[in-house]
Design goal:
The protein is an alpha+beta fold and about 200 residues long. Helices cover about 60% and strands about 15% of the residues. Strand 1, helix 7 (about 140-150) and strand 2 form a beta-alpha-beta unit.
Length: about 200
């Protein structure tokens, strides 16, 4: 159920973002908030907690936003053309207040991810996650070009190092997983050997 709720909010937000012609900017705001919640899990827990009143949650959010805006964290947030200040409300602020009022903050991480997927689709992008045992270095450019030919879209390459794959790489995009890792090769070899026993 939380998936369908998150999708409804993400879809509504992307419609607002399209009307404002600010799809990527609003996506960045969601990413900023997600990073804030990841780096401060207690904040997200408080905003999810049924033991804390909604008014208190909104006050905590406003206080945190005020504190972080002094560091420049919220400086690029959209304010419907108003002069930027902490009192102004943009679409992401309004969304957060709605989620708090409806006790739906638990869907925020999924909502942010779904919004990113919708924004990528709207802008003809595909995110590709590449895991490798070591840094790819100069291979990154040729890999990105190859993936763009394969998917026919602008590729956003997200790389991460995973020593457990031993060598090679694992590529994940949309519904496709291409495992060209040494770990994957060894596992497939083991399966073939066990089939013959």
């Amino acid at each position: 159920m939380s998936g369908s709720v998150a999708k409804r909010y993400a879809t509504a937000l992307i419609e607002v973002a399209r009307e404002m012609n600010k799809v990527d900017e609003i996506g960045q705001e969601l990413e900023d908030l997600q990073q804030l919640f990841i780096s401060n899990p207690a904040l997200h827990q408080v905003l999810e907690s049924p033991a804390v009143s909604n008014e208190k949650k909104k006050a905590i959010y406003a206080e945190i936003k005020n504190k972080f805006s002094k560091t420049g964290f919220f400086k690029n947030w959209i304010r419907f053309g108003k002069e930027k200040s902490n009192e102004d409300s943009g679409p992401v602020d309004n969304l957060l207040k709605i989620l708090i009022d409806r006790n739906r903050m638990t869907v925020f991480p999924m909502l942010a991810r779904l919004y990113q997927d919708l924004a990528d689709e709207a802008n003809g992008r595909v995110r590709v996650e590449v895991s490798s045992a070591v840094e790819l270095g100069e291979q990154t450019v040729s890999l990105k070009n190859l993936l763009q030919k394969r998917f026919g879209n602008n590729v956003i390459l997200e790389t991460k190092i995973d020593p457990s794959i031993l060598g090679g790489m694992v590529v994940k995009a949309k519904d496709v997983i291409f495992d060209a890792s040494l770990r994957g090769d060894l596992m497939r070899m083991k399966e073939r050997i066990l089939e013959k026993i």
